Structures are given as C-alpha cells and as structure tokens.
Amino acid sequence: MNQTAMAAVNLRAVLRTLEKLPELDPKSKQLLEHVPLILQFKAANVGSVRLKLGDGKIEFFPGGGPADISLGFPVPSMVNKMFDGKGIPVPLKGFTKLKYLTGTFTEITDRLSYYLRPTPQLLQDPEFARINSLLTLHVAVYAMAEIANQDPKGIQVAKGMRDGTIGLKIANGPALTMVINDHHARIVDGDAPKAAGPNGRHAFMVFSDLDTTGQVLRGELASYPAIGRELIKLGGYVPLLDNMNKILGMVPFYLS
Known about the structure:
Blueprint: H1 3-17, H2 21-24, H3 26-31, E1 37-43, E2 47-54, E3 57-62, E4 69-73, H4 76-83, E5 90-93, H5 99-116, H6 126-150, H7 152-159, E6 164-170, E7 175-181, E8 184-189, E9 201-207, H8 210-217, H9 223-228, E10 232-236, H10 238-248, H11 251-255
Parallel strand pairs: 1-4, 6-9
Antiparallel strand pairs: 1-2, 2-3, 4-5, 6-7, 7-8, 9-10
C-alpha cells in the first residue's frame, strides 16, 4: 500500500467525513458544544487540511491557514501511524490545547470508527445501519479522489479518464460528484454534472436505497448482481463508469 496515498485518504477522506458525523450522531454533536477551535494537519508530500470544531458542528477546509492547534508530519507514514493509534504528530502550535486532541477529538474520531467499522449485531439496528450507510458513502467517494491522484495504479486509471463528472447518488437521498479535469480527481458535495466544464462528459451511478448503498460499499453485495436486480442504475458515458469502478475497487484496501 502506498503510504502517501494512505495519508491523503486519511487526511482528505476520513477527516472530511467527520463533517457529516454531528449531523447524524447526537452524541458527537453534544461533544462539540464548545467554543470553536481550528485544528490543522500539515503532512509532507500530502499537504495541509484544517478542521473547525465547535458550536455542535465540524467544518473541513482543504489547505493551510490560521489554526489554534497545528500538527506536523515530516513523512506521510506518520499520518498513518497516528490514525492507527501507534504514532504521535509533531506539535507546531497550540501546546496548551493539546489535551483537546487526547480528549474531545479522540472521542469524536472514536464515534466515527464506531459507525464505519460495525459489527453484524450493530447493523441489525435500522438507525445505526442508516448512519453507517451515509458515512460509508461519503468516506468511500472522498477516498476515490485521493486514490486516483496518489496511488500509482489509481494514477494510471485516471490517465485514461477524459474530463467529466460521475454522479454517485442515493435515490431520494444525498449525492456526490466525482470531477475529472486533466486526469486529476476531486469530489464535490451534491449533484454537479457540469462541474468539469462545458466539454466534460457525464455518467451516474444511482443506488436504489440506503440498504443497497451500505451492502455494496461494505462488500456484502456485489455490484453486478445489484445492477441485474435493478438496485443500482447506471447511465451516461460508459468509459468514465468503467474507470471509476476500477478505482472504487481499490477503496477497501485503504479503508479496511
């Protein structure tokens, strides 16, 4: 597994998914009822991201900027060790506030892990399964862009993708859009078929419901049988879908 790609997935997919957590999980929202502070992660060869936490919500910002706490990672593998609970970042700013990391922030990330790494028993609860499916959709789609941009195999796949967009949607539910420009991928929240520009092609994948979404992304239901049962609807520019599916197939290796 490529350490730089893994670090990018952790910083720009896993942390970005934290935005959705307090919207879905009352306990996380309660933990965030405090004066806002900004936490920055700066990783060599990956870049910087920031999280604004407080007032019952989380906001994700790509790129660096003002922060109350800033953490440095001289090599990408240090990011991954921290996410595995085996490494410590280099504090660059906010030394007096570092207890927030081992306290509230750790509790919040534990809540995300609780939903993203479920047991079969937990998935029997319809509300838990609903939250799991929504969070899994977001983290998987966000991860696809990082794999396309950073993983050697993903980069090769992206080289074969022309400018365009791929909408990933749940029927009567949320939508995300994978945007390809000059073989570089990014993810836009919402349905944005024109985000690649006037000459971009468009394709889409629509899941019939939340249960189907969760089952497919957790690997419990294969895509082709789901398509045959009309639980997944595909359309648009087929080469974009084919290449996206290759990248989607790499996601479990990074999120397992």
